[in-house]
Amino acid sequence: MLKISVITTKTNELTEVTSNIQKLIDEQKINNGICVVFCPHTTAGIIVNEAYDADVKDDIIFSMEKISPSYPDFKHLEGNSSAHVKASLIGNSSNLIVENGKIQLGRWQGIYFAEFDGPRKRELWVKILEII
Amino acid sequence: MLKISVITTKTNELTEVTSNIQKLIDEQKINNGICVVFCPHTTAGIIVNEAYDADVKDDIIFSMEKISPSYPDFKHLEGNSSAHVKASLIGNSSNLIVENGKIQLGRWQGIYFAEFDGPRKRELWVKILEII
Amino acid sequence: MLKISVITTKTNELTEVTSNIQKLIDEQKINNGICVVFCPHTTAGIIVNEAYDADVKDDIIFSMEKISPSYPDFKHLEGNSSAHVKASLIGNSSNLIVENGKIQLGRWQGIYFAEFDGPRKRELWVKILEII
Questions:
Q1: Which one of B76, B91, B93 has the shortest CB-CB distance to A53?
Q2: Is the per-residue pLDDT at A132 higher than 90?
Q3: I need a surface site. Which of A31, A40, B76, C5 has the fewest CB within 10 A?
Q4: Which of C50, C64, C98, C128 best probes binding to A when mutated, by most A CB atoms within 10 angstroms?
Q5: What fold does the segment set C2-69+78-115+123-130 form as a domain?
Q6: Interchain contact C31–A (C-beta under 8 A)
C-alpha cells in the first residue's frame, strides 16, 4: 500500500487530499481500477463531500460537534470519546473509481481527511486494485 | 463504470436501486466479484437497510432530520448544509458482494439512493470487479 | 464468500472480530489484497475503531443512543427503528487492506461487529480480492 502524510492544525479539521491521491495514481500509472482509502486512526475518518465552497467544511464540523458532544458520563479517561464517535459515524474507509488515469468524482466532490482530535501528524493508506 | 439514473421527488427520500444494480450485473454477465457503488453527489448517499417495511425509510428520514437539522449558524449560503452533513454521515460509497450472478444481501436488505436535497435528477456510479 | 458467526448478548454491543477475519485470511493463504466485510443485517453494522481501551466501546454505544433515540413518532411497528438508524449511520460494509498475509490496521484499531438490536445470532460476510 501507499501512504499519504497529513498534518492537521486544529482539533476538528477537514483537509482535502484529492490531489495527493491523484498523484499516487499518476505515479503508479494506474489507468483503470478501484482505489481503497483507509484511515488507520481511531479519531479521524474520510469524507467525500463538497470541495467548492469551504463554508461547507465549517458547517460539517459545526454539526458534528452538535451530533457528538463530549458527555460528562464518558468513561474513556483520555477525554476524546467524542472524537471516537465522530470517526465511527463518518467511517474510516472509502472506495474511489479510477478510469482513464483519473479519480472519478462528481462535479462538486473532493476527498477529505476528517480530523476530530488534532492537531496531529496523520496518515492515509491507499491500496489500488488495477483492472487490466 | 456504469451509471444508474435516479429521479428523486422529495427533499428527503430513499429510493430503492437494488434491481437497477442487479440489472447491470445481469447485462455484464458478472458471476463472481465485488460491486462498488459510488454516489457522485454531495447532498446524497447510499444506505443498505430494510427493504421490507417501507415505514423504516420514513423513520430513517425522520431521525436524520433530528440528527442534522438546519442551524442558523450555518455559513454555507446555499442553505443546504444540513444535507451535506447527512450525506457525510451516511457515506457515499458501498461494497456489494456478487456470487452466482446475484448481489448477496441479507434477507431484509435493499440498496437505497438516499436523497437529502431533492427533488433532483441524480446518478449512481457502479464499478464491478470481476473475480475469475 | 466466507462467513463469520457472531453471537451478541446485549441490545447494543460492539464485538471485536479482528482475529476472526485474520483467521479466514490465514486459512485462505491470502498474502496481498483487499478484504470486503459486509454485514447482512439491517440493525447492525461495522465499526473500525479503538481496540485498546474497552471504555471507548461503552462511550460509542452511549453516544449512539443519544444520537438515535427511539421516537414516539416512529411508524415501524417492530419498535426497533432506532437500531435501523444507528446501522445506517455506522454503515454495513468496510474495506480492509491485506499485505504480507496480515490485515493492515493502525496501532489502536480493531474491527467490530456493531449490534444495535440484540441479543441475536448474527453473521458477517467476508469476500477477499487477492492481488497476485
A1: B76
A2: no
A3: C5
A4: C50
A5: Jelly Rolls (2.60.120)
A6: no
Tens-place pLDDT, residues C61-82: 999 999 999 999 999 888 999 9
pLDDT at B132: 87
* HSE (side-chain half, CA atoms, 13 Å) at B28: 22
Q: Are strands B33-38 and B93-99 parallel, antiparallel or unpaired?
A: antiparallel
Query: With bands split at pLDDT 50, 70 and 90, how would you rate the model's confidence at C97?
Result: very high
Q: Which residues of C touch A73 (CB under 8 A)?
A: 62
β-strand partners of A80 = none
Chains in touch with B (3+ beta-carbon pairs under 8 Å) read A, C
Mutant choice from B18, B68, B97 vs C, greatest count of C C-beta within 10 A: B97
Q: Containing H/E element for A15?
A: strand A13-16
What's the ipTM? Answer: 0.97
A50 to chain B, any CB pair closer than 8 A? The answer is yes
Give the pTM. Answer: 0.98
Which of A68, A75, A129 has its CB closest to that of C58?
A75
Residue window 65-104, chain B: list those with CB within 8 Å of chain C. Answer: 66-67, 89-91, 94-97, 99, 104
Look at B64 and C77 and tell me if their CB atoms are within 8 Å: no
SS3 letters across chain B: CEEEEEECCCCCEEEECHHHHHHHHHHCCCCCEEEEEECCCCCEEEEEEECCCCHHHHHHHHHHHHHCCCCCCCCCCCCCHHHHHHHHHHCCEEEEEEECCEECCCCCEEEEEEECCCCCEEEEEEEEEECC
Residue range B27-49, pLDDT digits in tens: 999 999 999 999 999 999 999 99
Locate the domains of chain A by residue range. 2-69+78-115+123-130
Chains within contact range of chain A (3+ C-beta pairs < 8 Å): B, C
Q: What's the rounded mean pLDDT across residues C33-49?
A: 98
Query: Which cell numbers hold the place of A33?
Result: 481500477
Q: Write out the three cell numbers for B33.
A: 466479484
**Cα separation of the two ends of chain A:** 19
* Interchain pair A75, C55: CB under 8 A: yes
